[in-house]
Task: structure prediction
Amino acid sequence: MKVLVVGGTGFVGSHTARALAAAGHEVAVLTRPTSPRRALAGLEVEWVAGDLRAPESLVAACRGRDAVVHTAGVLSLWRRDAEALYRTNVLGTRHLLEACLAAGVGRVVWDGSVGIYAGTRAPVPVDERGADTTDRFHSFHVTSMCLAEAEVWKAAARGLDVVCLHPGLCVGEDDRSWHSSWAIAGLAFARLPFAPPGGLNLVDVLDVARAHVLALERAPRGGNYLIGGENLTNRALVDLLREVLDLRAPALPISRATMRGFGQAGEWLARLRGADRGLAVTLNAAMGEAMSLYWFVDDSRARRELGHGPGPVRPALERQVRWLLAQGHLPQSGFGLRDFVERFFQPGPSAG
Result:
């Protein structure tokens, strides 16, 4: 198939583009003039000019494509970034889907977020029916992704063949947007592993990339899937990272209220420094709340219908740590207070 990857220069998108090419598909990547291309170095792709914020550029980019894979988006838990989240995640998705309808694209595979469905106070895996609580709606990011998904189903109602994927927290090399690397860097610099209540679903980014290929080739029209890996409590994740980073300090359990206090402190510090915004995951009040929830998922539908079979996350974390070290993002040893504050308590690199 001729496949256009939107967000192909980002973390998930670049791995997805490589997986599609390896599966024999003809890959094109939507790109802006400012988009870095180093994540796809060595891969033969067609570069197509376009921007989610410029609807007129998208129809031409989509014309002649059998499918479009949409992995682009911004991730921020800062209130001041609500407009940027809405403009890209919601309106950008709307613009792209309109272009796909106008260009006669055969199928769209769209990336959502497990945050649309999971995020609870109880450690119970959630399936595609979603949790029956509102705990996860503490930031506009989750709301923006729900609104974006609504755009997808509206396009489906107009006849577009769509498949929705909702990956867990992706780990692995080339995380240039710090999708998950913020947690590794924070622990590596602080050298003091805190473990609040809550937990995450972690999945190897290579498994997520393969899931996109499976969704493109196998999913029924209108398919909706949670794409998971391992459900790990924060304590289990901290212990795993301690082993990967070779940290000797034992995990220190803290309460949900203490974690919220850390988040409030991070937000206060960022505001004091004029850094209370940024399209990256950093410690603020919303993050303090998110870290104390359980983002566990039941991905049995994807395993059953797509053949999604994720491997263990430890090898992916080890690859990620090696990559971060090679990029100079982790300390070789010791505790660096200034680096810890710079990297963990204020916005980092922009999302790709």
